[in-house]
Amino acid sequence: MNLDRAVMAFAGTVVLVSAILSVTMSPWWLALTIFAGLNMLQASITGFCPAAMLFRALGVRAGCAFR
């Protein structure tokens, strides 16, 4: 798995878990979905992604999007 796929898998997991928690626990969990969406939007514009930095530090090999 490269860095790009790891970041997309992490973001997808956060969104799915947040949606499930908002249905089963509290609608306030949708704030996590909004945060994830805003983070993905700003990463697409600026190229800065904290999740990519974390995965890179953990030794995930680079992809082509986050260098």
Order of helices and strands: HHH
Report the uncertain regions. none
Distance separating the two termini: 15 Å
Q: Give the number of helices.
A: 3
> Which structural class matches the secondary elements?
mainly alpha
- Beta strand %: under 5%
Radius of gyration: 13 Å
Question: Main beta sheet, described?
Answer: none
What overall geometry do the principal axes of the alpha carbons give? elongated
Write down how many β-strands occur, each being a DSSP E stretch of 2 or more residues. 0
Q: What's the average pLDDT?
A: 92
Number of domains: 1
Helix content: over 70%
Brief account:
The protein has 67 residues and is mainly alpha-helical. It has helices spanning 3-24, 30-46, 50-57.
